[in-house]
Amino acid sequence: MIDTHAHIHFPQFDEDREEVIKECEDKLTAVITVGCDLEDSLKAIDVAHKGKNIYASVGIHPHEAKNYSEKDYERLLEIAKSSPKVVAVGEAGLDFYRNLSPKEKQYEVFEMQVEAARELNLPIIVHTRNAAKEMAEFIRTKFNGVRGVIHCFSGERELLEAALDAGLYISYAGPVTYPKNSALRETLRFVPSSRLLIETDCPYLAPQPVRGKRNKPVFVAHTALTIAKELGLNFTDIVRITTINAKRLFNLPLSDAEKKERLAYPVGNRLYLNLSTDCPCNCKFCFRGSEDFILGYNLNLKGEHVAEEYMYRVKNPGIYEEVVFCGYGEPFTRFEDMKKVLNWLKKMGAKRIRVNTCGLGYLITGKEDILDELKGLVDSFSVSLNASSPEEYYRVVRPSFGKGSWESALKFIKDAKEKGFKVTITAVSYPGFDEESFKKLAETLNVDYRIRPFKRFKKWEE
């Protein structure tokens, strides 16, 4: 687990800093202690050198912007280059809550730091308070490929959309654990797993179980627990997801296991099997081509793997609540290998088996008896239909088979239902999605439905 935003170089830790650093070394993967002005950044770097897995950022907080200008650009670069422990620029941004620096100064110094991040090829840690609209506009117009994170995100949807469109990460701190912050917790559903981070912002903002105490990096675990509960995941999932994400953003080394492409990957009490990178659909909202890491796993396979390798990876499928064929691509593109794995799973005591599919199995295989071949092997299908009409389907799903795909998908759904499989049709609530019509379609087909939140990987353009 990584605390991506701490201030353990602050005076609040002067009396027990060595003890806190040891605790971080023992219990966390890494901590980033974040500078708030150039002198403070030097202190952060000094503290980073006191621990193997402590890192620093160099930046100017908007409160301090009044003391700086573009003439400090070279010194900022010099300090950032002074140590390999520096992994980011920031914290930098806009704070119109206290206005301790004039707004024009805040803009000037923030833009300077964005340019520094670009030149240094480092991510930027973004602070924003009472400036969500202005920050969203700044990101849209000024970032242009600069990597970074919105630190201590406080829930503004416009800012969330702008940040995700720009490829930024979203970090949650102690406030997400506070009982009255249900609206903030709700925003977690819209953040892609590959963009989620956690932090403490210590010594401030202690999470609910330790609220009122001095915050410290190990308390990030409380935030992880709250997020896991909100997203229906377990603590291990959130630790894995946020650790991988932090390493990717801040260029910290991934272990060989973390880098390795995953054929089988557990999430909660389910095991997912990643058979293929191929898919006949090009859904406008899909992560394929934008992200390799999903839920903390590298799912972008570099080649096909034989069925026996999946059997070797799984070992004991009976320990899972459900085994799900769901990965980077469409499992029906490897129908014969899928059948081999399915037969083995059943022999080995898999409790329930689900196949997540686009529903174009007939067109992919060129056969219409595939459901008969799957009787007794598959318990349920989750069909990503993502539309309630042919017009919507071809505009958003964009199947490579072209016309006739909609009708083929509907036939697959009807046939599966008729042959006794449990069938759920699913959709993503992308901009303009017709939710009511989709529900009516599910009723007409006499199947269950599920609507997933739209998670932005890039700008949505009609």
From TrEMBL:
Keywords: Hydrolase, Iron, Iron-sulfur, Metal-binding, S-adenosyl-L-methionine. GO terms for molecular function: DNA nuclease activity; hydrolase activity, acting on ester bonds; iron-sulfur cluster binding; metal ion binding. Its cofactor is [4Fe-4S] cluster. InterPro entries: Aldolase_TIM, DNase_TatD-rel_CS, Metal_Hydrolase, rSAM, rSAM_sf, rSAM_TatD-assoc, TatD-like, TatD/YcfH-like. The keyword Transmembrane helix does not apply. It comes from the Bacteria. GO terms for cellular component: cytosol. Residues 265-462 form the Radical SAM core domain. The keyword Nucleotide-binding does not apply. Belongs to the metallo-dependent hydrolases superfamily. TatD-type hydrolase family. This is TatD DNase family protein. It comes from Phorcysia thermohydrogeniphila. The lineage of its organism: Bacteria, Pseudomonadati, Aquificota, Aquificia, Desulfurobacteriales.
